[in-house]
Design goal:
Elements lengths: L1 H6 L4 H6 L6 H6 L2 H46 L25 H12 L2 E7 L2 E6 L2 H10 L5 H11 L9 H15 L2 H26 L5 H18 L9 H19 L9 H30 L11 H4 L14 H32 L1 H16 L13 H13 L6 E3 L6 E2 L5 E2 L4 E4 L1 H5 L2 H4 L12 E7 L2 E4 L10 H7 L6 E5 L20 H18 E5 L1 H4 L8 H4 L7 E5 L4
Parallel strand pairs: 2-6
Antiparallel strand pairs: 1-2, 3-6, 4-5, 7-8, 7-9, 10-11
Length: 578
């Protein structure tokens, strides 16, 4: 038996080679039990080796994670901030923080106590770092180029794969540059023709809504924003698309629950609601493909119509269908890009339109001042069908002031996934930390915007220009010395000798559209698009508050930001321009 055992090769490969009968010692001399014992021994040794390799790999992986966690604790402890109340940080008991669980309000208290940069432990592995000082904000938003991994999971779950809204900046920066060239090029020029069509289309829908007696400002603003971006991306075909309203509703439903389902580390396939959500996502993708096909068919049937859109050959060759880095994107990625643009664009635009329409309905003097400027510029234009909004300075100032008091998001969220951020102040933000910038705190800073920073005042974006004959002398803008809204209708009226010129805000002080490397590439398009839409709307209609809401108390000026505006009931009255 020992000789037979010695004759059996120990290596499985050698055993397999000799199986064919070339080893008479094994085939004839050794019994089958020896071969069976050898195979069992080999399997046992192989299994043990595999388990040792797996154990060592897992140990190394856990050791690396533990080292990163210790590094996170070490670097995070050096950043000023309150101690965590428990091992789970503030995440479990967040509802008790600040006023009504308001994170921004709580961060304001922390910054007042600890300085321009503070840390907040959300859990044993989650560190939040908030930055408030403007010079540090510029540095942080330039260096922190990545989005949060949760944001990517939420986006991918809702809209599918995308090469435009990935969390890593390296994956998206070339495509962002291409999109910026499209939005700020031919599509920006087309806004003048899109806005009147959008107003006509939306007002047609509003007539049917008003017949039911329900007309709130938020829903109207959402319809306008959706129609504006839909017509921009898909051309005039979007206005005639029968499924446009359903597309809007399903997109908003998907976006509403995206972060909730993305918060699961493992997709909750055991929950029926999750599969319902997945079916909505598939339906949204199918509707996107339908409108793309409808847009192309519409363009073929109406060759004489100016239907410049993001799907036109001249533009899509630069963005959707032409390859940026030499490899082709899938159909799913194109749908994800389009759905992402529709969602992000509509979200920011709808909130801004709602803010402006609410103020126009609450303050008739603001409405009349804006209409007077629109009417004056259009009457002096050589082509009244083109809205020269760049010369409507008070209109632009109103749009920017509304965006200042009601930014699209309460926090600008960034992170650096792989590298630590070493700031000039000597503070090091560890990799993986959640970096936030609260725009509301910056926009309410009296040292930046003056003592009346909480009040709505478009004049802070205007500078006075004194005209003598045909020559004008412009003074420097003074964002600190501003007047309240009640004084704008009398104190800031234009005369033959005095006019006002719009001044773009400092990008480090105005954060409504983000800042740094991941700033919104469509800021100019959004501002000019909303301004043109408002010019086309106000030239034809007056915005009034419903009678039942007239007796309701108007919100105080300081409530416009922290407590938000009311969702007022409004209606539109056709102007008599005869």
């Amino acid at each position: 038996m020992e000789s037979c055992d010695a004759a059996v090769p120990f290596i499985l490969l050698w055993s397999l080679i000799r199986t064919g009968g070339s080893s008479p010692a094994v085939s004839s001399s050794c019994p089958d039990a020896a071969r069976s014992r050898f195979l069992k021994d080999y399997i046992s040794r192989f299994t043990n080796a595999f388990l040792w390799v797996a154990l060592i790999s897992v140990t190394v992986l856990l050791a690396r994670k533990l080292a990163r966690l210790v590094r996170l604790w070490n670097l995070g402890s050096r950043i000023p901030g309150p101690p965590a109340p428990s091992f789970f940080g503030y995440l479990k008991g967040f509802s008790s923080l600040g006023s009504d669980g308001n994170l921004t309000g709580y961060l304001a208290k922390l910054h007042a106590k600890y300085g321009p940069i503070v840390r907040l432990w959300l859990g044993p592995t989650q560190l939040l770092v908030s930055v408030r000082e403007t010079s540090m904000i510029e540095e942080v938003l330039v260096k922190a180029k990545d989005k949060l991994p949760l944001t990517r999971r939420a986006f991918r779950l809702a809209f599918g794969r995308s090469r435009l809204f990935a969390s890593s900046f390296e994956e998206v920066h070339k495509r962002r540059e291409s999109l910026a060239a499209c939005l700020n090029g031919m599509l920006l020029d087309r806004v003048n023709t899109v806005a009147p069509k959008v107003v006509k289309c939306v007002m047609g829908r509003i007539d049917s809504i008003m017949a039911k007696g329900v007309l709130d400002c938020r829903s109207i603003s959402q319809h306008m924003a959706f129609a504006l971006f839909g017509t921009t991306l898909f051309g005039d075909a979007f206005l005639s698309w029968s499924d446009a309203i359903f597309y809007e509703e399903i997109l908003m439903l998907i976006a509403k629950d995206a972060c909730f389902w993305a918060s699961y580390n493992v997709p909750p396939v055991w929950r029926r609601c999750f599969w319902t959500y997945q079916s909505l996502c598939k339906e949204a993708k199918q509707l996107t493909l339908d409108i793309i096909q409808h847009s192309k068919s519409y363009a073929e049937r109406n060759e004489t119509v100016d239907a410049t859109s993001l799907l036109d050959d001249e533009i899509s060759n630069k963005f959707l269908l032409e390859e940026i880095v030499g490899h082709h994107g899938s159909e799913d990625e194109h749908c994800g890009d389009i759905l992402g643009m529709m969602f992000h664009g509509c979200l920011a635009t709808a909130g801004l339109i709602w803010s402006i329409l609410t103020r126009l309905s609450l303050y008739p003097e603001l409405l009349e001042k804006m209409y007077s400027e629109i009417d004056r510029v259009q009457n002096g234009s050589s082509n009244p069908e083109i809205y020269d909004v760049r010369n409507m300075h008070f209109l632009l100032a109103t749009v920017y002031e509304s965006a200042r008091l009601l930014p699209a998001g309460s926090l600008l969220q960034r992170c650096s996934v792989n590298c630590d951020l070493r700031l000039e102040t000597g503070i090091t933000v560890p990799a993986g930390a959640i970096i936030v910038v609260p725009p509301e705190l910056v926009h309410l800073d009296n040292s930046i915007w003056g003592k009346e920073a909480c009040q709505f005042n478009p004049n802070r974006f205007l500078s006075k220009v004194l005209c003598h004959g045909h020559s004008c002398v412009g003074g420097k803008p003074d964002p600190v010395s501003v007047t309240s809204l009640e004084g704008t209708s009398q104190d800031c009226q234009e005369s033959e000798e005095t006019t006002f010129r719009f001044n773009a805000p400092n990008k480090n002080m105005f954060l409504s559209f983000g800042s740094g490397t991941r700033a919104c590439v469509g800021q100019e398009f959004t501002v000019l698009g909303i301004s043109t839409l408002l010019a086309a709307l106000l030239q034809e209609y007056e915005v009034r508050i419903q009678a039942c809401a007239e007796n309701s108390p108007k919100p105080a000026a300081e409530d416009f930001l922290l407590h938000h505006l009311p969702n007022t009931k409004i209606f539109f009255v056709k102007r008599n321009r005869s």
